[in-house]
Specification:
The chain has about 300 residues and is of the alpha+beta class. The chain is about 30% helix and about 20% strand.
Amino acid sequence: MSHYIILSIATRGVLIMIRFISLLSLFALFPVLAMAQHSVPEMPDPIRNLADEGAQIRYMGRDHGFDSWLTVKNGREQYFYVPPGGTGFVMGVLFDNDGKAITIEQVQRLRDDGDSLLDSLAGMETLATPVNKEERFAFQSPAERLFYDTENTNWVALGYSDAPVIYAIIDPQCPHCHAMVTNLKEGGFLDRGEVQLRMIPVGFSEVSKAQSAFLMAAPDPQARFLRHLSGDEDALPVREGINTQGVERNMAYMQGWKFDVTPMLIYRNKDGEVKIVRGQPSDIPSMLADLGAAR
């Protein structure tokens, strides 16, 4: 196993970065809002940024002088440790000088608390697209500005990664969104690689907002959304305490561009033009032909 010692501390703690290990293969993950015996410190900006992108965040308490944070995004769990003074942080697994994994104990404490919000969210790892916010103001065309903002929402993909892309603002409780995705799936457009649908989850009720948040954090969002379409009420559970900041970011994007219905589709066609389809598309083959999808 590859490992690197990052830091030794006076309280007999050692931080070690470990590659190719998931603590959640040892323990199911059960989060809490905060350890009862600790007050929750201010969240570091990098962790707050992850929360804004839809990650689920939990404060794990303070051990060996470190404020400890757990994040889960796209099924990938990460552990952050902030030293006294809060001037920096390290990411990895905390061991003491006897070789005992303190992080495992912290995860066990979360499990013992009994909040099972995140126990099904860890398992797969996906890559996030970096955003250069300075480029936002370089665009001359409103259409290009819209497409840039759309690309940098929090989205979940259905279909092959090398297929032409359509973005769609969806609400998990929206019947028209259900019908659109069902038509794409049952028509074979997704399975044939004619289109990748990048769903931008929003929520116009507390239920759909919580479902969208869970969808964005789940390790298997594609399978879960399709199960949701088929009527599986457990596919997108509504859990108390789930972080909805990623959904709020999508809602701000939607409201900023004055979009008022779901689904709302945005894509760049084969000629490079940015197109918008308001509501459920009436002619999917024609839309995909405009997209440049091969048949």
